Amino acid sequence: MDVQLTAAHWVYLAGILVILATMALRKNIVVPAVVATFLTALTFSGSIVTGLSAIFNASLVAAKELFNIFLIIAMVTAMLGALRQLGADRMMVAPFRRVMRAGTSSFLVLAAVTYVISLFFWPTPAVPLVGAVLIPVAIRAGMSPLSVGMVIAICGQGMALSSDYIIKVAPGISASAAGVEADAVADKAMVLSLIVGGTALLITYLVQKRHWRAPSPDLLVEWEAAADRGIGDTADRGIGETRDDSSGDGGGSRPPRRPEPAGGPSGGGEQAATATAVLVAPSDPIADPDAAAEKERRGTAKAFAMLVPLAYLAFIVYLMLGKFTEVVPPLQGGDAAAIVGGIAALILFAAAASTDRGGFLETTSDHLVDGLVFAFKAMGCVLPIAGFFFIGNPEFAGPILGISADAAGPAILFDLVTTVQAHLPQNAFITSFGILLIGLVAGLDGSGFSGLPLTGALSGALGPAVDVDPSTLAAIGQMGNIWAGGGVIIAWSSLVAVAGFARVPVLDLARKCFLPVMAGLILSTVFAVLVF
C-alpha cells in the first residue's frame, strides 16, 4: 500500500534521529523529545496553539498509561524503607552467608540472591543490600572483586531488570508502545533474559575462576586495604559506613536514634553514669531497658525478615498455579503488579507500626512520600520521551493533537516504517537484530528505560511486515535497552554503584561485562526468531 508522506512525517523522523544521536553522545534526551513533539504537532496541524498544547498532552497521555508503574515502584520502595528502618532488610540475606565458604558456592549464592532480590525489589535497593552483607563474605571466600561486581551487575541490573517479570514496569512500557499485552512481552522477556544472563554468567565463571584464591580472612583485609589506597573511588566511604552500622547486630541495621533523656549521650552521660553507680548497689538486680528494647527490636526484625520472603513466595506459587493449572484463575493484565503493590502496602503498614507505634500514621505517610519521590526521580523523565513516541501511534495521537475521539489519529510512525520496509529485505533476522541494535543505542544514555517507547513502537510497526510477533520484537528491544542502559555494559549508568560496592574501577567492570553480555544478547535474539 502506497503511503503519502507529509512534512509532519519528516519532522517526526528527524526527531527520532536527533534523539538517537543525543543518546549516542550520552546526553539527556528529554529536551529533544519535547522539542520534537512540539515541532511534529505544529507541522501536522499548522497551529502553534496545538503545538504548545501537545507538549503537555503528550506527557499527560503517557502519564495516564504509565502511572500504575509509578505507583508500584512507590509502594515497593516505601515498604523497603520501613524494613530498612526496622533492620529486617539485611536479615533477609544474612543466612546465605553460612553457605558461602568457597569461590564456586559464593558465585552461585551471590548470583541467586542478587537475582531474586532484584526481581522483586529492583536492583536499586538490592545492590547496597548485597554489597553490605554478601560482598565481604564472597571476597573472604576467595572470589576476586571484579568477578563479584560482574555477578551482581549481570544478575541484578541485567537479568532481573531486563525481564522485570514481577513488577512489570519495563514490559508495561514496551507493550504500551507496541500495542500488545504486557504479559506477552513479559513472558518472552523472561526467557530471553535467562538466556542472556545464563550465557554471561557461564562465560564469567569460566574466565574469572582462574583469578580466585583459597578462602582466607586475609583476603578481606587485603581488599579493604586496596580500597583505602584509592582503588575503589569515593563510593568506598559509603561502604565503610554501612559496615560500621551493621557491626555487632548480625547484619541488621540500626533504627533511627531516638531523642535521649537528660543525662544521655548528648548531655552529661558520664555524670549520670557516676550518679547511678553511687545510688545503686552493684548487687541490685537492675533490668537494662535499652537491652530489652534492642532484643524486642531484633525479634521483630527477624519476624519481618521471614514474613516478607514467605509472602512473596506464596504469591509466586499462586502466580504459577494460575499460569500452568486450573486450580486458581490466572491473573490478567496488571493484576500481578497490583498484588505486589497490595502486599507491599500491608507489609509497609505492619513494619511502620512495629518500628514506631506512637507515630505509626505519620511514619507510614513519610515512607509513601519517599517512595513516590523516588519513583518520579527514577521514571519521571520517561513521560515526555514516551509522549513523543506515542504521538506516532494512532491510538494515542488523537488526544495529544487535540483530535476528536470520533476521528482517527495519524499513524505517523507506522507510515514511516511502511515506506522504509518496501526498500528493506523482508527478513525476520535482519529486523530482529535491527531492533536489538536500536535498543542498545537507546540504552547509551544510561537510564535503562528511556528507549523502551522507541523499541516498542518500532516493534509494533515492523512485526506484521516481517511476520514476527510484535511482542517478540518488543522483548528483543527491551533486552538491548536494559542490558546496555540498565547498568551492565555502560560505565556511566548505575553500574557505578556496583563498582563502588565491589571496590573496582567502573571502566574495568564495564569492559569485562561487555563480551559475555553481547554473546548472550546475540544468542537470545537468534533463539527468539527461531522459537517465538
Topology record:
Blueprint: H1 7-24, H2 30-45, H3 48-86, H4 88-91, H5 103-121, H6 123-133, H7 135-140, H8 145-163, H9 169-178, H10 182-208, H11 217-228, H12 236-246, H13 269-279, H14 289-324, H15 335-355, H16 360-379, H17 382-390, H18 394-401, H19 412-421, H20 428-442, H21 452-462, H22 470-485, H23 495-502, H24 506-531
Helix pairs in contact: 1-2, 1-19, 2-3, 2-17, 3-9, 3-15, 3-16, 3-17, 3-18, 5-6, 5-8, 6-8, 6-12, 6-23, 8-10, 8-22, 8-23, 8-24, 9-10, 9-21, 9-22, 10-22, 10-24, 14-15, 15-16, 17-21, 19-21, 20-21, 20-22, 20-24, 21-22, 22-24
Description:
With 532 residues, the chain is mainly α. Helices cover 72% and strands 0% of the residues. Helix 3 crosses helix 17 (382-390), helix 6 (123-133) crosses helix 12 and helix 22 (470-485) runs antiparallel to helix 24 (506-531). It starts with 6 loop residues before the first helix and ends with a helix.
The stretches of 5 or more residues where confidence is low (pLDDT under 50) are 231-284
Q: How many distinct beta strands?
A: 0
CA-based shape: globular
% residues in beta strands: under 5%
Helix fraction bin: over 70%
H-E string: HHHHHHHHHHHHHHHHHHHHHHHH
Separation of the first and last Cα atoms: 27 Å
| Overall radius of gyration | 26 Å
Which structural class do the helices and strands define?
mainly alpha
- Average pLDDT for all residues: 82
Count of helix runs: 24
- Major beta sheet, specifics? none
